Automatic annotation (TrEMBL):
Keywords: Membrane, Transmembrane, Transmembrane helix. This is Uncharacterized protein. The chain crosses the membrane at residues 9-26. It comes from the Archaea.
Amino acid sequence: MINLKNKGIINFILVLVFLFCIMGFRNSAPGRGNKMVDTNYV
């Protein structure tokens, strides 16, 4: 039970990080060095 709960939380965090990375790639300009989520998006 505890293992399943922890696994779900870890998977949820991984999905969130994955989505943030995709948003950062789509939101950042090609010439910009920072590929993570921009302050403009937040």
